[in-house]
What we know:
Helix content: under 10%
Radius of gyration: 27 Å
Oligomer: single chain
Strand content: over 45%
Number of helices: 2
Amino acid sequence: FGLSPTYKKFQAHLGYRSLSWSRYTLNNHMFLGAAAEYQPGRWRFGAMYGRFLKAVEEGDSNQQVFNRVSQFPYAAFDRWGYAFKLGYGGPKRYAELVYFKAKDNPASLLQQPEIQPVSPGENAALGLKVHLAFLKHFYFDADGAISAVTRDTRADSLETGEAIAQYTRFILTPRLSTAAYSAGDMAAGFRRKTLGAELKFTRIMPDYRSFGMYYIQTDVQRITFSPSWYSRKGTIMINGSLGEEHDNLAPRKLAETKRRFGSAMLALRPSNRFGASFQYANFGTSQRPGLRSISDTVRLDQVTESILVSPYLNIGGEKRSSTLSYMYSNQTLNDRNKVNANNFSMTVVNHALAWALGNAASNLNLDFSVFVTESDQPQGKTTARGLSAGFGKLLLEKKLNSNFNGTFSTNTYNGTSDGSTVQIRWNNQMRFNKHHGLSANFTLTANQSKSNAVARSFQEYLATLMYQYNF
Length: 471
């Protein structure tokens, strides 16, 4: 449970909250604690303190989180941290400096983990974020950070003459298990009403991490170019992207992986009644020798292509309207390694035809769709055919929005029946007045499988209840 009340230029965060102050320091990691943000004029101030991880004993089966890869339970130390933010500027030009520090408490566990050893760590990260808008249509963005991580605070400390000690001794005690990492990205571009383009560069060193963020792809250098164009009347929209990335920045890997990617999207809306969108994407992945030469039998060389076509037709007016739409998608993985091509190449095709009806007079919405999904791979061909139907209505003088939807599909594997899948969703949103709101949602998913080729048999229930208060 958490609250984020706002009063004038001051905002507080209490309870279970997450903040995004910098992409590479404090970025949406859940914590239990308190935070405050204050923006007087062009200045920007922020501070937070809280618990990022709760101590979990290895023998506590009620709190353990199991890793699906190793099947061993994870233990964890208590992890507390704090952060400060200092910034200056307005919406068009600003700079923000973020400092984050977190440390595990070694005494928070009664017994040292043995099945899967976990060490108490410490982290300090310093990030800088800059935004500049100039010459009316141009802009420049940059976000980068340096992070020092101690993997085990019980390791011996380093002498002050060591290189790592010179850079980290002011923010944490440098130890044999301490290492410093860097990450950042920058983008430059321009935007006009009908034309835009952006060039972005990203470089994240191997093993970069911050205790104030979750997963991030590391050991990657990427450059991307993204142009876009819109017609003046909005009837045509075109955008796309081209880029290349590679790993092995250290360099210390046996092989370097390179990835080239490109995508394009065309949207047509000649009138309010008819429109269509077309999308194409191509991603190629290949390897070249790093520390050693690569055998052709294990060399990675794959190309993935995807095509999406989605036309639609609107019928009716303001009081009663209906939409008929169709979606076709084709995704293909082409393995160009002659040895492994027969094991990894696959194609997935989707067809979906949907109809939706809205009646403003009765505040009622209806929708119905049929779909077919085919997956063809070396292990066999799977097919799912099904239909989905739902309705929604505004009740209690439009204060309650209730929606119900059900989906049913039959599954086949190599032409043989392989069970069915059912999903039921019921969503309700209630707005009492401008301050108070309540939502209740329920989802049931049931899958029956005969061979476990498509998916195992299971049942899943999910219910959520949320109260909302707007100041």
